[in-house]
Sequence to fold (415 residues):
Amino acid sequence: MIEDRSRSLFVASAELVRSNHVLERILDTMNSALVVLDERAMVQRVNRATTELTGWVLESTQPVHVSQLLDLAADANVDAVLAMHTDVELRTKGGEAIPVHWTVSPTWTDDGVCDGAVCIAVDMREKRRLEIELRHAHKLESVGQLAAGVAHEVNTPIQFTGDSVHFLQDAFGDISRLIARYEELRLSLTSSEDGVDDARINAITTLRDEIDFDFLTVEVPAAVSRALDGVDRVATIVGAMKAFAHPGSTEKLHQDINAAIQTTLEVCRNEYKYVADMDLQLGQIPLVHCNLSDINQVVLNLVVNAAHAIRDSLGKCTHKGRITIGTLHDGKDVVIAVRDTGGGIPIEIRERVFDPFFTTKDVGVGTGQGLAIAHRIVTEDHGGTIRFETVVGEGTTFEIRLPVDAVPDSGENEP
Fold:
């Protein structure tokens, strides 16, 4: 009987060893990092992906607390870890911060007491890189679609600048002729003892009237001013286009949202100016901690959508609609509101407006990514919210709230 029990224990022990070996193999083949914690948040087990990602190797002589992996207090217990179902930064042994999607499941004793947690970390670096590339591709797509309008915006100041320069060229020729006659008179006065040469004075007076010198004294400065205005206008458009299209840095800094809105409007002016008047109501707001390139993209998407909504609602009407963009400081947030007088959003599609690739536009007009990207930028990357109010037949208002000093975090839309 003792032999039978010993044999059973041996078999059970061997089965346990085999099961543990299989479990280790399964854990080590996972692409995601796995961390097992006890109730004190001490690391009890990691898999190969964790070691490859962070450099941490579990050794009995050097216990590892979860605070060495996450931004937690050194005395944090497993309860603090259980509250972290979100995107966090995982610290490597060398001190590098790696963005990961962190999910946690508690473990329980037979008595129903939480005695630890199993944590899964998914490396988000490649996803973040692809998202940045997607956004930049969408931005370049937007720039491409707006290129004809931008070319028209540049062409107008180029034309009146060219006209002004041609006028200045002709005026300079006329003034040069008059100056030459004055020079002849000056030389005659210095070389003649007979005094003023009436014939030369009459010739100068005739030429002065012929070239309309009084007109030139007024119009030449005006032409110079027009030319400089044209150059400034072109420089403004090109500068706005460069600022908008440049991928920029992914770093968030405190930025001027009002200036970003004005830059974006320079880029897309031709998209709305024939269908809507623009009403800017930019308030006194603080600098906002954000990625300015991303906010430019959000504003562009909303303004272009507003212009298209107004255009579609006007039909054969000759009057323009109105787009109103306002900003204000509300507590810890800066609010951006984009309001249009378009046809509104039908009730049957309101829940889908932020879905990727959803669009009501004709084929070739849009990809359906604009509002989806705007939602992700505002909520996921800036910890803000984006919501809309709409009345069919009257128009739509999109409201964005950005924390002034936001720490990037997950967010949810409020439809």
